[in-house]
Model the fold of this input.
Amino acid sequence: MKFWAILPAAGIGRRLGSRTPKQYHSIGGTPVLIHSINRLLEIPEIEHLVVVLHPKDQHWAAFNFKNKRVSTVTGGDERIDSVISGMQFLSEEANASDWVLVHDAVRPCVKQSDIKNLMNQLNESKVGGLLGVPIDNTVKQLGDNNEIEQTVDRGQLWSAFTPQMFRFELLKQALSNAVSANLDLTDEASAIEAMGLKPIIVPGDRSNIKITYDSDLELARYYLLTGDKT
Ligand code: C5P
Done:
């Protein structure tokens, strides 16, 4: 049984308010995407990593990044299309029960220990799961005009992080089902859940942030340049 990885990096980063997609912002002279790739390459069990790029990507070629464990493919309009594209690339080599880890290209601060924990703790699972953290803020559900409808009990609420790790054939089936049903999903676990299955959350470190806004870049810079990657 092998481990494979997919890094969807075909987003155009509308929310950061900049022309450069967030995965291509530089931190300490290295693009966010390369930081993310390196964190996964540090895990020797991962056989091969597929980076999914936007069809009109104008940044990747300039890095001249070469590693025999890394390939690139072209993504699609939605994240799910990009992940499916990565799965198609791997399908020649991956077996049904192999594991595939899908990791946001914009989460460069993921720790090695978290990835290893995910792999170890789910090893016996038939379904798989993902890294996550409990929600710490009080959560409000709003109606019109920012008026609070209700306070949601946060006791059982968790934020879903990546990597998300599933059996290859199961994820392939789940994503195909989700496309057929026209489901609007923001992570892979949702596609698995839509099949009536229950992915497991493995508690991770809060530094595994997703770079979405400018302030996230500052925080990522702090974690990457001063933090401990292990
Ligand atoms: O925009 P969002 O936060 O969902 O992006 C999460 C990850 O999915 C990012 O790494 C982004 O580049 C990727 N993505 C993609 N293809 C898309 C949309 C997002 O690979 N069509």
Summary: The chain has a mean pLDDT of 95. The two ends are 25 Å apart (CA to CA). The CA atoms of residues 109 and 207 lie 6 Å apart.
